[in-house]
């Protein structure tokens, strides 16, 4: 495949997952829940902080305090995680790097959320009314780690129900600090899909279902892309001495090295693709960042 290879449908296919009906419903739910909270925690995938953003979240949130949590830092390049942190900070945004599985950064996340919530709690205090706890919600695109983070935060916390007038279902709030309650259901947002490059990043990281795009092509493109900055990782993982000249040769070689051969010695491209995507997503290819600020 050439440098400007055909990306065509991968981006479009991502859109299939989120036809307008789904998007309208997701938006409605988020808008409803946003009314109940004081602070929004937006989860992004540290490997793709740009591609894992939602295009209209900024408009939905308005002036509400908002913080970006770069999740899955364990799978991304440490140096680049730091660069993203500097970048967002330089843009005047609150940002925290976290790992929702082992809990790294979670304490800081709560501290920052608490700080941001003070704007609201201070208002109660100024009015002389008994302050209610500040309320927080988590939003993010599919598979970014929303449930994992909620589970982590609710680990030892207590669930409590708050009846809010005008809301059909009673909302469940998880007490994460004395003065901070977390909405137990996250807001699921659709990703950006106009840009084919974004579609690919979402496919690589598993944000869109493997059913809706060509996994063989995606895996081939992924390997070809990684060979620029992460050739060493590919060579080590698949015991390859030299990166071949074309993406197709590289993909086939990986299949061969993994022993995915059909009768007649032909490489099983489906098995190869599944293995490559799995390796990447599980961190078996090392800590990899697909986007830089
Ligand atoms: N390595 C790593 N994996 C993570 C982390 N956070 C979540 N995951 C994994 O990412 C996958 C998706 O996590 P979920 O918590 O289900 O993500 P979600 O955003 O709730 O997903 P949807 O329900 O599809 O919207 C799971 O396999 C998690 O184990 C993290 O910080 N590091």
From TrEMBL:
GO annotation terms (biological process): translation
Pfam family, one: MMR_HSR1
GO cellular component terms, A-Z: cytoplasm
NCBIfam families cross-referenced by the UniProt entry: GTPase_YlqF (TIGR03596)
Source species of the chain: Megamonas rupellensis
Function: Required for a late step of 50S ribosomal subunit assembly. Has GTPase activity.
Domain of life, per lineage: Bacteria
Domain CP-type G: 23-191
Coiled coil: none
Gene3D superfamilies: 1.10.1580.10, P-loop containing nucleotide triphosphate hydrolases
GO MF term (any one): GTP binding
Annotated positions binding GTP: 71-74, 99-100, 143-148, 187
UniProt keyword list: Cytoplasm, GTP-binding, Nucleotide-binding
Places the protein is found: Cytoplasm
Major localization listed first in the record, in broad terms: cytoplasm
Family annotation (PANTHER family): MITOCHONDRIAL RIBOSOME-ASSOCIATED GTPASE 1
Taxonomic lineage: Bacteria, Bacillati, Bacillota, Negativicutes, Selenomonadales
UniProt keyword annotation of Nucleotide-binding present: yes
Keyword check for Cytoplasm: yes
InterPro entries per the UniProt record, alphabetical: G_CP_dom (IPR030378), GTP-bd (IPR006073), GTP-bd_ortho_bundle_sf (IPR023179), GTP-bd_ribosome_bgen (IPR019991), GTPase_MTG1 (IPR016478), P-loop_NTPase (IPR027417)
Listed name of the protein: Ribosome biogenesis GTPase A
Family under the similarity heading: Belongs to the TRAFAC class YlqF/YawG GTPase family. MTG1 subfamily.
């Amino acid at each position: 495949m050439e440098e400007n290879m055909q990306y065509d449908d991968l981006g479009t296919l991502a859109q299939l997952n989120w036809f307008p009906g789904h998007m309208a419903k997701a938006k409605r739910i988020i808008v409803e829940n946003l009314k109940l909270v004081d602070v929004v925690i937006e989860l992004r995938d540290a490997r793709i902080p740009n591609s894992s953003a939602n295009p209209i979240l900024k408009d939905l949130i308005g002036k509400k305090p908002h913080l970006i949590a770069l999740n899955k830092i364990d799978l991304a390049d440490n140096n680049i995680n730091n660069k993203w942190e500097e970048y967002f900070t330089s843009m005047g945004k609150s940002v925290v790097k976290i790992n929702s599985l082992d809990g790294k950064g979670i304490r800081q996340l709560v501290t920052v959320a608490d700080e941001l919530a003070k704007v609201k709690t201070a208002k109660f205090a100024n009015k002389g009314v008994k302050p209610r706890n500040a309320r927080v919600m988590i939003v993010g695109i599919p598979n970014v780690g929303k449930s994992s983070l909620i589970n982590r935060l609710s680990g030892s916390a207590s669930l409590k129900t708050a009846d809010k007038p005008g809301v059909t279902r009673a909302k469940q709030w998880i007490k994460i600090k004395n003065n901070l309650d977390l909405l137990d259901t996250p807001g699921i947002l659709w990703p950006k899909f106009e840009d084919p490059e974004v579609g690919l990043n979402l496919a690589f990281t598993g944000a869109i279902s493997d059913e809706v795009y060509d996994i063989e092509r995606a895996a081939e493109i992924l390997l070809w892309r990684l060979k620029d900055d992460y050739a060493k990782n590919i060579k080590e993982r698949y015991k390859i001495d030299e990166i071949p000249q074309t993406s197709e040769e590289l993909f086939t070689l990986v299949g061969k090295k993994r022993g995915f051969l059909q009768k007649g010695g032909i490489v099983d491209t489906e098995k190869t693709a599944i293995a490559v995507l799995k390796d990447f997503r599980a961190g078996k290819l090392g800590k990899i960042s697909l986007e830089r600020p």
